[in-house]
Design a protein that fits this description.
This protein is an alpha+beta fold. Helix content is about 25%, strand content about 25%. It has two domains: about 110 residues, Glutamine synthetase, N-terminal domain (Ubiquitin-like (UB roll)), CATH 3.10.20.70; about 240 residues, 2-Layer Sandwich (Creatine Kinase, Chain A, domain 2), CATH 3.30.590. Strands 6, 7, 8, 9, 10, 11, 12 and 13 form an eight-stranded mixed beta sheet that branches. A five-stranded mixed beta sheet has the order 2-1-5-4-3, with helices on one face. The protein is globular. The N and C termini lie far apart (about 50 Å).
């Protein structure tokens, strides 16, 4: 069995946890979003390798224990929507992302995928692509940023972003294991980097078309939390935080989930006009978007630390202090994509991608 300690000695290793025969049976880990926007999972045994979600059963769980149903009517149903390979159990074992439904067949209140998928289907002729840049913070067991002086601060921001070396980056072995777990699972992870605040990191997922963007980001989050759980077995303990402003005092960047968006019209020759049309529509719905762009995002969108102010819409070419950034090469080539820098790190990606479609295309 490969332990967290083995990963530390060889961070390039991602060996399956289970190498023994399972008698032809496999384990399917059902993963879902709970009533607080967190992740839950439980496992079932399947008699043979699974090739599609149609082969998997609808399952249920106690929604009263996940803030998704009252105690007197507690059954909430899990309907599989996407399958990933399981990097911990290996072999034919799988991770199964699920939607949640109430006992009357209606989508559970935290099932934002159901509604986003309707928007995606209505706009599929535009072939919408997304890429999400998920920032997050690593905390110690006391809830303070990892490797920071207790109750104090490290040196000012500057050397940490894309940093290399002791005192500049922290827990790279965990981050490397997560990267490899995503690749093994089939998550469309595009890259990683250390971020501006010490012990803050980012991974990028995409480009993904339509509803698959949310599926892949949620599974990447699940794998990150699972990797951190493995490290917690030993002396070092990691907590993953998606809070948008974990350190509120001092000159420290918050954490966002910048959303890159394009359509086939934007990517085509002369697509810049379609991009600008989308920017105008986003401006007209600024506060509607802010409402689903993450909790406590007002702490982050202060107009400082590479953000636009939450109360004012702005856009600009190569401007990381704007609500919407147009990459310089997009302006030069007159086609490509836009980056919405407003979403916080704790967004539900289904809500964000869904409202982008509704505003820009529907």
């Amino acid at each position: 069995m490969t332990s967290a300690e083995d990963y530390r000695h060889n961070p390039t290793l991602l060996a399956p946890y289970l190498a023994l025969s399972q008698g032809g049976k496999i384990m399917a880990e059902y993963v879902w979003i709970d009533g607080e926007g967190g992740l839950r999972c439980k496992t079932t045994t399947v008699d043979a390798p699974v090739k599609s979600v149609s082969e998997l059963k609808e399952w249920n769980f106690d929604g009263s224990s996940t803030n998704q149903a009252p105690g007197h009517d507690s059954d909430v149903y899990l309907r599989p929507v996407t399958i990933f390979k399981d990097p911990y159990r290996g072999g034919d074992n799988i991770l199964v992302l699920c939607e949640t439904f109430n006992s009357d067949g209606t989508p559970n209140r935290t099932n934002h995928r159901f509604h986003a998928n309707k928007a995606m289907e209505a706009a599929k002729e535009h072939v919408p692509w997304f890429g999400l840049e998920q920032e997050y913070s690593l905390l110690d067991a006391d809830g303070w940023p990892l490797a920071w002086p207790k109750g104090g601060f490290p040196g000012p921001q500057g050397p940490y972003y894309c940093g290399v070396g002791q005192g500049r980056v922290f827990a790279r072995d965990l981050i490397e294991a997560h990267y490899r777990a995503c690749l093994y699972a089939g998550v469309e992870i595009a890259g990683i980097n250390a971020e501006v605040m010490a012990s803050q990191w980012e991974f990028q997922v995409g480009p993904c078309e339509g509803i698959s963007m949310g599926d892949h980001l949620w599974m990447a989050r699940f794998l990150l939390i699972r990797c951190a759980e493995e490290w917690g077995i030993k002396a070092r303990s990691f907590l993953v935080s998606f809070h948008p402003k974990i350190v509120k005092e001092g000159e420290w960047n918050g954490a966002g989930c910048h959303t890159n968006f394009s359509t086939k019209e934007m990517r085509a020759e002369g697509g810049y006009s379609a991009i600008m049309d989308a920017v105008k529509k986003l401006e007209s719905k600024h506060m509607e978007h802010i409402a689903v762009y993450g909790s406590e995002n007002e702490l982050r969108l202060s107009g400082k630390h590479e953000t636009g102010h939450i109360g004012q819409f702005s856009w600009g070419v190569a401007n990381r202090g704007a609500s919407i950034r147009i990459p310089r090469q997009v302006a030069q080539q007159q086609k490509g994509y836009l980056e919405d820098r407003r979403p916080a790190s704790n967004i539900d990606p289904y809500e964000v991608t869904g409202i982008m479609i509704s505003t820009c295309l529907l």
